[in-house]
Amino acid sequence: MKPAVGRIASLHLHPAKGGAPLVMVAEVTGVAGKGLVGDRRYYGRLSRRTGQPSRRQVTLIEREVLVAHAARLGSDAIGPGQARANIETEGVDLSGLVGRRLRVGTMLLEVVQHRDPCAKMDAVQPGLRTLMEPPCQGVIAVVLESGEARVGDAVAACDLAPAGPIPLGGK
Q1: Helix (H/G/I), strand (E/B), else coil: 25
Q2: In this structure, are residues 84 and 22 in contact, taking their beta carbons and an 8 Å threshold?
Q3: Dihedral of the alpha carbons of 67, 72, 74, 76, in degrees to the nearest 10
Q4: What is the distance between the terminal CA atoms of the chain, rounded to a whole angstrom?
Q5: What pLDDT digit, counting tens, does each position of 119-151 carry?
Q6: Which helix (H) or strand (E) is 14 found in, with range?
Q7: pTM of the entire structure?
Q8: Are 110 and 56 in contact, with CB atoms under 8 Å apart?
Q9: SS3 assignment, position 167
Q10: Choosing a second label site near 154 at 20 to 30 A (CA), which of 46, 58, 95, 145?
Q11: Each residue of 23-81: pLDDT tens digit?
Q12: Cα–Cα distance between 130 and 143 in angstroms, integer?
């Protein structure tokens, strides 16, 4: 089992046009109850069913999972952002953190569920959607405390995280 501390490998925002490639960014700002500023598809979105803020505010997936999927599919790689997650991580088992809180940079997130892979995954690599079954598809989180996150920042289960960002070597 991987430890509950890792780092941000890459960050991405959804453009306004559905299905368009995600935009890679160096940092993001999360707003409590709304999501990531600049995420044109999901920021501030309300649930059609409840009228409350959507639980799909931030999506995360492990780079290690994407590397394994690419290998199983005989591909060199699944590039950053192609799996359509806002935050790609390294060194942390996200699937084991459903129901827990994460400190991501200075943001506090709560992991609320596993992601449901959509048909766009097969456009990235035929057969990818089938491989993206629990625990191999990433997670969805809500922003509990506003803050910022940058590529290279720590991602840590809340019970292991201090009140601010966790410094990593070389940063």
Answers
A1: strand
A2: yes
A3: 0
A4: 26
A5: 777 677 887 778 787 777 889 999 999 999 999
A6: none
A7: 0.84
A8: no
A9: coil
A10: 46
A11: 999 999 999 999 999 998 888 888 889 988 888 899 999 999 998 888 888 888 888 98
A12: 29
